[in-house]
Amino acid sequence: MSFNIAIVVLNWNQAELTTNTLNSFLKIKSVSFKWHIFVVDNASTDGSLSTLKKTFSKSKKITFLKSSKNLGYTGGNNLGIKAALKKNFSHILVANNDILVKDDFLAQLVSVAKLQPQSVLAPKIYFAPGFEYHHHYQKKDLGKVIWAMGGKFDWQNIYGSNIGIDEVDQGQYDQADFDIDFISGCCFLAPASLFKKIGLLDDRFYLYLEDVDFTHRAKSAGFQLLVAPKSVIWHLNSGSSKPGSDIQEYFITRNRLLFAQKFASTRTKLALFRESLKFLFSPSYWRRQGVIDFYLQRFGRGSWR
Fold it and tell me: I need a surface site. Which of 5, 11, 27, 151 has the fewest CB within 10 A?
């Protein structure tokens, strides 16, 4: 099978961050496969698209797409995915605009994809130096602190967590045989056939848990979720939104309930219903609004400002 990979990168008012990511991608080494980048501008208001077009005007490896309105993480990426599917790319790599990649990271993903064609693949993701949650690491370990080796999912509480997070990489996961429940939307490679089989990212989520939803649907459809440990990238963690921010409060609150509605057991749904009633009295306006919008079935952007 020949590999022709579409790389979808979403930008919204972050020209500098996206520029660094694109420059990193443009150093990709490829021999046995082709690749092309689709940059989707999610209706930026700061001139990002013009800046990016000017910066990369000489590159034939990048196509720019513009949305007329902010479609969120799901809708923006879906715009790029649809463009890739129309061009008959064999595989699609969805990637954040706040990552830096090793020049052979895509070649390493391809080597695994050739052996495991029915799979969704993630690279080994490190924190970019200085972007760790904690600051107790030795200088020699910076750049090797794991952000994710895939994810585990707590089905009783509807929370996901990254495998290996905050651990210094000493190869402890490279040969380990462990189950992966989901793959982060930070970066994943999937065959185009998967999107044709199960559909695109669910636009109702807009932002957060859409990756858990998508990779759970992929797993249910018989695809494996795998990490290629020789494929390495670095994540400038929370380059787009800060932990504990209003935007997280709103979308995670609402989308946990949506995800549970789609997939959880009756027992878990009842537990979340009781929890959601308590959230209606939360001091957080956006947590309260997330619950209200779920029960009013206001999805997508919902009430987010």
Answer: 27
